[in-house]
Design a protein that fits this description.
The chain is of the alpha+beta class. The chain contains four helices and twelve strands.
């Protein structure tokens, strides 16, 4: 009987080798940031619109964009040119990672339903071609709109499977926008399960 249970246990381990066994958590405050090029272009438009550098700078300095001082979250609630700005999270991958599940955990406030604004996923890979490093971006299927996610007291979660194909010098890039009219995103953390 004991011998049979050992054989069954060993066989179940062999057939369950593709089960996700490791979870890594990445705090958004450390791995996410606003696209500076898009922000600077938006600020130039704000300067033209306001006609006053001090007023435009005050508006920029008082908006809620960046790491939350009280947590490990990244807050995104731009006060101008919301449709033209975005933030990106870059999560390092390794050649030990094949197929994995990415989980995004956030909190939304004051977002109107049915508005576009969400996240898309890409894998970024650096390759040395003998003359220097080249960077390639591979857009992944899927992604989401913030207002389409089921909410639990403002909290939202999104999960998706991605295949890194055990490639080295790669990262997962999550590019996000908010809705054009109102609402804030507080991205808590991103998990990788593999």
């Amino acid at each position: 009987m004991f011998k049979r249970s050992i054989i069954l246990t060993a066989m179940s381990l062999v057939f369950s080798s593709n089960v996700l066994a490791k979870v890594e958590t990445f705090p958004a405050a450390s791995f996410c940031g606003e696209n500076i090029t898009a922000r600077n272009a938006a600020f130039q438009n704000l300067l033209k619109e306001e006609g006053n550098a001090q007023k435009a700078m005050q508006r920029l300095m008082t908006e809620q964009v960046g790491p939350d001082a009280r947590s490990y979250s990244f807050i995104y609630n731009p006060s101008f040119e919301r449709s033209n700005r975005q933030f990106t999270c870059s999560i390092p991958l390794s050649d030990e990672i094949g197929k994995f599940k990415v989980n995004v955990h956030a909190q939304l406030e004051n977002m109107n339903p049915g508005r576009p604004g969400g996240c898309e996923f890409s894998r970024i890979r650096r390759v040395d071609d003998g003359q220097g490093w080249k960077v390639f971006s591979f857009k992944e299927q899927g992604g989401f709109w913030w207002t389409d996610l089921p909410k639990n007291g403002g909290f939202v979660n999104y999960s998706q499977f991605i295949d890194n194909q055990y490639e080295r010098s790669s990262s997962l890039q999550i590019t996000c926008r908010t809705t054009w009219d109102q609402g804030s995103i507080k991205l808590h953390h991103i998990e990788l399960e593999y």
